[in-house]
Write a structure and sequence with these properties.
Length: about 325
């Protein structure tokens, strides 16, 4: 039964993402807002819903390992696998505004996360035997930064409307666009839940740990909306939507999901979470350098990202 639900979850994710991209792109054109802005907000939020659901539920149940490993695993997956696969479909072009503002901001907040989860103590990290924590104060800081990010993005959207006012667009009606977005979100949310639940059941049956499941199975399951949505967008030439979705989702995951989770209950971690946060920073820098070097991520770089993720997967499998 778990295998049947897994397949059904994948179908819902694929069709939901397809509807969501079409509806979101249409809304962007109706409102005369660049696709990059929609990708950073509406699409990023929609595709981050599975992470939010899993992490908040884990926090409420006191299963903090799953909450944090889900976010860290999802963000690493988004950067290396989602953008890697998109680049293989179509070389991914990145707008200068994204490389100048949102992408560096995502790296900045990951560095803040590293400082917070390491308790600002290099000695504790080197010893590796003590526990670490992300407290309510840290969660509140993330929520404040999230509010600032949303404000800045909306302000940018309003300013950008003037730049695209005279462009001619073929769009769906507002009602149909809304139906596509709502239907897409429903498919993504339900599909993500089915994939995560069934995959976790299958993994647990093989005796795998919660941390491993969080970094791999659950991270993969909750990142499938980002993967499918971004690949569909890339296939349709909506590269701005694809890159904006990944960067926006990573920002949402850290600021909103970890922020809400930590405010609900302080998150206790072991040293491996600190290592994984450091790996996320390295992955972010690698992708950023590749994107900014020629303002695009080429197919060869996409293949390299997938290879790096494979190495990370082997690392968490044997540690």
């Amino acid at each position: 039964m778990s295998y049947l639900l897994l397949v059904l979850g994948f179908v819902l994710l694929v069709k939901g993402a397809d509807f969501f991209v079409d509806g979101s792109s249409s809304v962007a054109k109706i409102l005369k807002v660049p696709s990059i802005v929609i990708g950073l907000t509406v699409v990023a939020f929609g595709t981050s819903m599975p992470e939010l659901s899993v992490s908040v539920t884990a926090a409420l149940n006191g299963n903090n390992d799953l909450a944090v490993s889900n976010v860290l695993g999802s963000n690493i997956f988004n950067l290396l696998v989602v953008l890697g696969c998109c680049a293989l479909v179509n070389p991914v072009h990145a707008k200068w505004s994204l490389l100048k503002k949102e992408f560096p901001f995502s790296i900045f907040i990951t560095v803040i996360l590293l400082l917070l989860v390491s308790d600002f103590s290099v000695t504790k990290v080197i010893k590796g035997t003590e526990s670490f924590s992300l407290g309510k104060l840290g969660g509140l800081l993330f929520l404040i930064l999230f509010a600032i990010f949303l404000y800045a993005t909306v302000k940018s959207a309003l300013a950008s409307r003037k730049e695209v006012q005279d462009e001619d667009y073929k769009v769906m009606s507002p009602l149909r666009s809304g139906v596509y977005i709502v239907g897409g979100i429903a498919g993504i949310a339900l599909g993500g839940d089915l994939v995560v639940d069934s995959a976790s059941d299958i993994a647990a049956a093989f005796g795998l740990s919660q941390t491993f499941i969080g970094l791999t199975i659950v991270a993969l399951g909750t990142s499938l909306p980002e993967l499918v949505t971004s690949m569909v967008a890339a296939g349709k030439g909506e590269n701005d939507l694809a890159v904006g979705n990944v960067v926006g989702s990573n920002i949402f995951n850290i600021l909103l999901i970890l922020g809400v989770s930590a405010v609900i209950t302080p998150i206790t971690l072991d040293v491996t979470a600190v290592y994984d946060t450091f790996i996320l920073i390295i992955a972010s820098l690698v992708v950023y350098i590749a994107a900014i070097s020629k303002r695009e991520i080429r197919r060869s770089e996409g293949a390299l990202f997938l290879l790096v993720y494979l190495m990370f997967f082997v690392y968490i499998l044997i540690r």
